[in-house]
Amino acid sequence: MPNRRIRARASLRVAVLAAAVAVLGGAAPAPDKTDPLADQKAFQASFGERFPQVPFADFANGPYAVSAPMRKQWEDIMQFPPYDFALDEGKTAFETPFANGKSYADCFANKGIGVRQDFPYFDTKTGEVATLDGTINRCREANGEKPLPYQVGLMASITAYMAETSRDKPFDIKIPDDPRARAAYEDGKEYFYTRRGQLNFSCASCHVGAAGQRLRGDILAPAIGILAAFPIYRSDWGSMGTIDRRFTSCSAQMRSEPLPPQDKSYRDLEYFLSYMSNGVPISGPGTRP
Ligand code: HEC
Predict the structure, then answer these.
(1) Atom of ligand 1 nearest to the CA of 210
(2) C-alpha angle with apex 196: 192 to 198, nearest 5 degrees?
(3) What is the pLDDT of residues 59-111, one digit of tens each?
(4) Distance (Å) from CA 250 to ligand 1 centroid
(5) C-alpha separations of 159 from 127, 155, 165, 285 in Å
């Protein structure tokens, strides 16, 4: 019965293979499917090749890094930076004690001065990504104060002040050796590259594929360093906006349903984008025409 012999040999081969896999698997864990550092190197190299004339640190300046006419406009706006009011308001709020006598400084390393480049970070206690904005609200709540709305207003002012004390410090985002941190990174990466909405665009379609190109009145900012200037003042907003405000408006640009501010996927997205930008200096607060 040749058939039976063939089947027997085949099942023997499967068994041998399974045993080999078990032995190998025991000796060395299967390689991670993600290698964030390799992703980061490839990402940074690809923008370096696309924009050879842009010094690496200049990716902190978003669209101005890749458009000479916009840069000229920027120099004019900066005679009277429209975020100055927010900076003053943020500094005052930052330095005013809560009703219980504590203050923001008590919730941060180095009393909150010069720490923007370390956010977001993976919090091994909660198992989730903690953003600067989220940490500000957790600080308020821990001290008996109401949380602030995330997109505009005082949240933008306080983060503007905290960014300003961190200017020129390079993003220094860490992915700890913790499967939950890897999962958060993967989730953010997936969010960035997934096509969605009526236009079937991903974040990458505009900020990688079309970076530096014109879309209506705007020049599309390259994804590298894209959060370095936040929060920003935009003339078309007529006010300051946080990262949540920008994520929400870009979700709308894609004709897709925005997530609530600080949704887990938005925080993971911020983690991914900031990690990709390690080494790019903080330039915030920023201003856009
Ligand atoms: C249809 C194209 C389009 C898509 C898709 C898109 N954006 Fe944008 N995005 C823009 C435009 C236009 C601006 C304003 C001009 C600029 O600065 O790039 C902008 C600005 C930004 C900025 C601020 C850049 C700066 O320096 O001011 C961030 C951050 C950003 N987008 C993130 C995202 C994320 C995250 C996604 C995916 C959820 C996304 N965008 C998807 C068009 C897009």
Answers:
(1) 2
(2) 145
(3) 999 999 999 999 999 999 999 999 999 999 999 999 999 999 999 999 999 99
(4) 5
(5) 24, 6, 10, 8
